[in-house]
Amino acid sequence: MKNKVWFITGVSSGLGMALAQVVIAAEGYVIGTFRKKEQVEAFNNKYGHKAMGILLDITDMDGIKNQVASVYSKTGKIDFLANNAGIGMVGAIEETSLEEARRVFEPNFFGTLRLTQTILPLMRAQKSGHIVQVSSHAGVKAFAGFGIYNASKFALEGFSEAMAQEVNPLGIKVTIVEPGPFRTSFAGSSLLLSHRTIEDYNETAGAFKEKLLSVHNKQEGDPVKAAHIIFDYVQKENQPLRLALGKIPLKTIQMKIDSLNSDLSHNKYLSEKAVY
Questions:
Q1: pLDDT surpasses 80 at 138
Q2: Assessment of whether the complete model's pTM goes beyond 0.90
Q3: How many domains does the structure of the chain reveal?
Q4: Residue among 12, 135, 160, 194 flagged as catalytic
Q5: Could you tell me if residue 270 is inside a domain?
């Protein structure tokens, strides 16, 4: 991993910061994105020639194009892209406005898609590269009160799964990381709450919101341990596409698999009748 260039979004805290620190400790070079100028300056002052912080809001499509071009002109390559930046959202589907939904999809889907599309031509020219998509166990299993966030991560998983098949023959790898609850700012400053509340959803979406807020900084996941696992995982050949992180994702993703199998088995007779 020495001298490998990592482009990591959202390194101001949590998993992004932990991953950046792991890469730097292993003598890789980090391009880290921040949304505040003072964060960029602090990062650059701390790490000097070992890393470079840049100001980038991944919902700024022109900014993505300009910053990637600037970075590439200085580094000459991008070996790893870790799409970590994103935002959480809690609220029942009926409670959520279209504006709130778009606010979630802009970074979680469209911004991530655009950044990936911008870096892919560089990786194709190199005939190498590795894209790490930070999804969630909520990108596999949906939960009442989490529907818009679920939808954004389902969309991320969908394009990433297809992309993995498209780029594999070109020497480019893809890993989808599916963390469970981690001790990050996700359930704190990075979490949006729907402005509207409807009493009828108190026992479903409302209960989920209260539980999520109550576990802030008490979650089972350790972002530093997760960063080390991700870093080690992407160095090995022929790894599976998906990497679940935490004990909770093992349970929730298995619940989804069991549910799909149950639905398929239950409706098999009807499914087979729908053909000529």
A1: yes
A2: yes
A3: 1
A4: 135
A5: no
